[in-house]
Amino acid sequence: MNYPLKNLKILDFTYLLPGPYGTMILADLGADIIKVENPNNPDMLRMLPPVVNGISAVYAYINRGKKSLALDLKSPEAKDIIYTLVKDYDIIIEQFRPKVLEKLGFGYNDLKTINSSIIYCSLTGYGQTGSYAQRAGHDINYMALSGVDSFSGKKITGPSLHGIQIADIASGAKNMVIGILAAYIKRQATGEGDYIDISITDGVFAMSAFTTAAYLEGEPLPQPETQMLNGGGIYDYYATSDGRFLSVGPIEPKFFQTFCQAIGYTDILQNVDFSPETVHRHKKRIAEIIAMQPLSHWIEVFSNVDACIEPVRTLEEAINNPPLSERDMIVSITSDNGTVFKQIGNPIKFLSQKYIAYSAGVPLGYNNDEILQSIGYNKQQIQQLYAKNVIAKCN
User: Fold this and answer.
1) Please, what is the average pLDDT of the chain?
2) Residue 105 lies in a domain
3) What is the tens place of the pLDDT at every residue in 97-131?
4) In this structure, what are the phi and psi dihedrals at residue 343, rounded to the nearest 5 degrees?
5) Predicted confidence (pLDDT) at residue 395 exceeds the cutoff of 90
6) Do 114 and 247 share a domain, yes or no?
7) Given phi > 0 = left and psi -120 to 50 = alpha, else beta, which region is 122?
8) Do 96 and 193 belong to one domain?
9) Which H, E and C letters describe 378-394, residue by residue?
10) How far is CA 242 from the centre of its chain?
11) Portion of the chain with pLDDT greater than 90, in percent
């Protein structure tokens, strides 16, 4: 298969979610990726249940299409291995706190002396500069510090946790991918590599496009339920009589009119007034109407009505119904030990062919021998590395 990123060769020093999710995107598109892990402290995703035939289903998904090298980076021998690999694997992605790899001899300047056109990307919570650079953090912290949480959720209950890691994926992983591909295109044109500094908090802040752009030009400090898209307008979730929810998003006039007609609330159309007091009154009435019927009723009502109204589905319902069931978003991927995993498909669709890494994430150190032999190590030398615990393998 002629994968679009088949010429990208990447050493992946990332772990948990942000970095590995980003390198999974690149692997699905054909990048050749070696995931380097500490044999004494491997990626924690390997321990997440369920574990099927020795492999975490989560790890198998997020690290599909990648080779595994279990290497103690603190060992003297690690330098020889990484320095040799860097001559060919000329894109480096790391997720440690600033200066950690530099202290081990694997910083940007160290590797640039070996390969002058290297692309080196550091993905962290707060970036390489500033007073927060060395702080620990997770998705919830990046959302909080970016200011986004302050105008999300409800006035009474405050910020709400999300069911997915928005900051890690939408900010961290995807900005990382964009940066790497941009640097690669630049290198194709100029021959020059580059260093990329990705801060997840920067990315979350940049995602607050409407709200922050308005505030920077003098609009009031945003609060929960004060804006059209954060609960201050009709755009919201409404409970049905059976305890389910309906998403209501008719912000355009034509959709709003269609929605009101469909639920039988036509009084509002006689005098459309969207002042805060009036909107509150309308929302209360809409909530009362929707709460009179079960979700199945509203699904039927809006099945052929184009008004930006959809049910809040369970994960099971989402998987088994359109649009996801019609878009190859559930695929079967086989691991190297023969285990078949059901996994999330590639959301990037090409007309020419389907691109996905057809190999689930492998056990720790699974590709040690193959990788070392490819750079000139013989079997005896490899066995010596095992004996000295420079490399390790999980059988």
Assistant:
1) 95
2) yes
3) 999 999 999 999 999 999 999 999 999 999 999 99
4) -135, 165
5) no
6) no
7) beta
8) yes
9) CHHHHHHHHHCCCECCC
10) 33
11) 91
